[in-house]
Amino acid sequence: MKLAVILLILATTYAYTIVPTLDIDLDGPAKQRFQPAVQLILNTYGYDASFGAFFSYHNETTFKHLTSKDYALLATSVRTHWPQYAQELEGIVEAFNRSDVTFEYMSAWAYFHEIGHSLSVNIKECTAILLQTKDGIIHGRNMDQSPDAGRLLVVHFKFIKNGQYIGEAVDQYWFKTGFVTMFKYGVVSLQENWRYGHYLPLFMLLKKISAGTTSLGWTFRHILDSDINNFDDAVTYLENVIVACSQFNIVAGTGFNQGAIISRDPISTYPTLFFNNTGLGNDQFQYMVQTNYDHWHKDPKGDQRRTIAENLLANLTSTMQNELGVYSVINTYPVHNEGTFYTAIMNVATGRFNYFGQEGITPFNDLE
């Protein structure tokens, strides 16, 4: 309880903005599920300062490379293979009520990560920390992205099914109807990180999508919506689902050693990293860190987030081997950096899902 109070104080004191919370009833009409979120952001910030700035940035870096034929193929593929998500996207388009936000455009956003990999867009996002303690596995998550307008899009969702709350998510990508940070009560916490690995040329990617390959954001939706109800089944699904881009999936469960870093690739396969084969820590105190680079290689000199976080975790005192300790590590520069949109601290064993809107931070030399 004390830790929860401390984290709440940190959230309300240092947050860039209060992250709004909305319920989504998964048994309700699909078209209506995300419309309140669109309307909330538009009413609060207006289009130009929020979605408009975010869309404009990624149009220039990513979507300008798509042709009208590509957009049509993506829209047809979503409607054909993913009818529930297609209805949700149609509702989002209706809520925008703008001629430049079409179903074709939102279908491309549904595959934003896959398209970005295919075009070798330089996106550096995300740090994951898994810390095994006597009170369960603490899962710390930073989301790093651009541009700053994306911070205004971050929303916290609570999902209802059969009249009961079944999980939560916090994300700025929710308008693509998929999530990269999710929490299914009593089952798993989930996080996706961009991975620098093999990529598919755009024509091969579009062919794969046309054949029904899922968006990475929808893999977590599947775990939430389906009867996957334990750590092992979630890991097996994420290890085997066909993917169209490189990615890391970080998973924590409710039991001892139930932590995993799953390295996925559209071409090659790699072994999953579990607590019992990390070599970091000991039987009572174990941790794993994942950023955007393969963990079997050293960090690049220009991005030492993983190395710095591992060193900090290795030196945590016994009184800091808890949620506050994970927060202190993940909130240290450069783990928390100029592009950090939000932080989540999750523990499935205790049912706690804490989330904070973040400002970007940069080093300051007070001797100058």
TrEMBL record:
GO molecular-function terms, A-Z: N-acylsphingosine amidohydrolase activity
Presence of the UniProt keyword Ubl conjugation in the record: no
E.C. number(s) listed in UniProt: 3.5.1.23
The keyword rRNA-binding is annotated on this UniProt entry: no
Protein name: ceramidase
Record keywords: Signal
Organism of this sequence: Paramecium octaurelia
Signal peptide stretch: 1-15
